[in-house]
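Two proteins follow. First one:
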Amino acid sequence: MNFKEIKTFGELKISGYKSLSIKDEIRKNLIEKISKKEPMFEGIVGYDKTVIPSIVNSLLAKHDIILLGLRGQAKTKIARMLPLLLDEFIPVVRGSEINDNPFHPVSKFAVDAINEKGDETEIEWISRDQRYSEKLATPDVNIADLIGDIDPIKAANQKLNYSHEGAIHFGIIPRTNRGVFVINELPDLQPRIQVGLLNIMQEKDIQIRGFNIRIPLDILMVFTANPEDYTNRGNIITPLKDRIDSQIITHYPKVLEDGIKITEAFSWTERDNKKKIVIPYYFREIIEMTAVQARMSEFVDQKSGVSARLTISSLENLISNAERRAIINNDEMIMPRMCDVLSIIPGITGKVELVFEGEQEGSIKVAKALVSKSVREIYRKYFPDPLMKKKKVNTEKEVKDIYGEIVEWFQYGGKISIKDDMTFKEYFGELKKVDGLEKFVKKYPQFYESEFELASLMEFVLDGLHQNSKIAKEEVESIVIYKDLVGSMFTQSGSEFGGFEDEYYR
């Protein structure tokens, strides 16, 4: 039977429809999903063995929950997926402001309607999306916003005294009755407003301005918070924390591949043009590793966290730089080059909060140092470590340095300049000048499928050698110059970071 065709309370009773509380409804649907082995929280990566089981346990226990974690850990996204565990539609008394259940009306409006009309009381069906509300906690939020207040104009127009329920203007929480209500950044809510939530959490009812009005609510309360908020911007008052049944700790991706999947899912990589986009995997790894390094850096405030938005913005900037070059040169393919990695810096500097030492060095220097460390780490996944000690074949002879021919070319005065808008022919031709470079990369055919990817790998090798102090690199506006390391020491202190990079990493 199509329940949505039912228009009156009498028809609803005859249909055999069973009404459940919000938490029982979620529990029922959750058990069904688990039994059928259906995926839950699709698109949430890296939480399958940690966060999601904790959420499922809490919902099975019919708990109100708080998601506690640093910025960019999908807390709000998870909360917004909870309505998927609700029934597709439920019946409410038509005209009710607080989604009254026809079987258990709680507002005066719904009670009067059912007392007056009985089985002829009109009902309507609301979707699961209409049963979700969310409020960002800010210091200016007041109790009237959340719970409600007496509306003097409404009271005057209807000639009601202020203690009459009909004079109430309901806040966002009562209007989410029989649904999921989320408060983001709970510690930002003033303590006196948090006190106003206690009755909702414990007694499941609301009171307005001390008048004898008690409306029992059927609601799942979900909160999100950053743990640092407990000391920096505000506190969650102890009685409220005690009434939140389950506290679930979120985290950043534990493996690089999970971070890459998240970045890929939320970044705009498929541009609205007919040009083919190819992104070698090591670029994704470099960007994700940059976030990992930032989360460990002594120059970054670890208490504030490093959001996944850093990697999303960085990847989009990287593609945009390659796209700009393709438009200038009328290329059919958009593919990043190592020189494009400089373009991700604006996606980093605004996403990390620095400690005092980091502020002293400057956000751009710190961002470049993070990228440098990332390139160094990822390079060793693809090619031999340039700093690895040479192995002796016997006591008298050493194996030849596999990078020797490349490094020697620079030592004898070789130098190449790469501009980020060069045509592919110019770019490839410049890289081919380096003795032994193309030959070296061709030893690893598994890493490339075309000349475009071969050329990009050749520059990757040069950048890897620079990050391991084998050759020097100079950045002048949009031009990258690779040259001999020793010769560059006469003009700068070891690297483009003026010694900062060496001090930071060694």
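Second one, unrelated to the first:
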Amino acid sequence: MLNFLIKPFWIFGIDRTVQNTVAPEEYGLYFALFNFSLLFNIVLDLGITTYNNRNIAQHSHLLSKYFSGIVVFKLLLAVLYFFITFIVGYVAGYNTSRFQILFFLSINQFLISFIQYLRSNVAGLQLFTIDSLLSVLDKTLMIFFCAALLWGNWVNIQFSLMHFVYAQTFAYLITGVFVFIIVLIKSKQFRFKIDLPFLRAIVKQTFPYAVLVLTMTFYYRMDVVMLDLMLEDGEKQAGIYAQAYRLMDAFNQIGVLFASLLLPMFAYMIKRNEKINELLQLAFSLLFVPAVVLVILSFYFSDAIMASLYKNHVEESEMILPILMMCFVAIATTYIYGTLLTANGSLLLLNKLAIGGLCLNLLLNYILIPLYQAYGSAVASLITQLLVVISQILFVQYLFKIQFNVRFIIALLSFILLVFCATGAINLYVDELVLQLILSLTFSFFLGVLLRLIKLRNIYETLTNRGI
């Protein structure tokens, strides 16, 4: 509930307002550099966070053993990350003004990575309530700082994009200190020293995770970077893409939250040889069903939605929105099946799929971007993510001997067809956008409950049994 309240307000109340306040090309530049700063983000982590989450969930006593060594290691990795990012930026031809923005965005990436590692300890200890509170702390602080800059008269300055970046840095810094103190209390010890044998052992064990995250980051984030570098009006196209991407990113936060909760749950259940079928189907229903509804809403109402949110390039971005929302369906499913494969330790398989997805995505972007600009990049992303997630589903079915539930599939297809027809009728006979969305969402929810795709009792039992 905290994530539902805080993160949408950050994305639509703050981030969207910033894009509407500054010049379109200026925000497009920020969005391209933000995605560029993410490309080598794995260097800050090398898969340590995912590995740590899984291992602390299965062996909680390892926290005091791992904590000091990993913190020092991440500080060393930060130096390497800055070196690689700025060298590649120099090769890409970035000028001084771009490097100024990139420098603070890189600091933000380090702080995010550090916070995520610290939170992996909290989640690994099954302290899901505390972890959920920590998951919104940084955004809560950013909302406070940015609101003061945008709407408050606390400071007599003209708002610029760099103020937006500085506010993020300050919020991440405060959050990092706070989470560090919590983990330190749980660990009961911390020594600042470099343990080379320990670091070598960690790198050896986390390398498969690092390769997986690196390849997935590239095929998730290269779209905007390639738009910026390949086109003369790349900053403009990146801004157009960002407008549609923001909606997908808003709902993507729910998928991230699910993955962070599911990874230690799946790892714990696999270690105890418990059946994962029920949790898998529950998680799939809770993410896939709303994702399908969002696709249908974006298909019918993309023009009205984008016009209500933005001032510039509305027509171009409204064409991209349905494509990216279909991407969200694939991404949401990946958060479930990919997380299960990760918890199972199937890293070689996931790496093969990710590398294949990266090669396909780069090829499709190279072909489609010159022809269709931002729209072509969205199509490339959709094709890539659909093929990858279908492969993940098939491998999960094979590895865990999960039989296709015919009744569930029929119910799901019936749900999609009925929601599509009902939303079309609402679009035809109702004029007000807000009322259209409320009616469509209400119908979808009750239909999902009626078809038993959304089982409220199962949701309650799972949450209470897991101590969430």
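SUMMARY FIELD: The CA atoms of residues 88 and 100 lie 15 Å apart. The chain has two domains: 2-403, 407-468.
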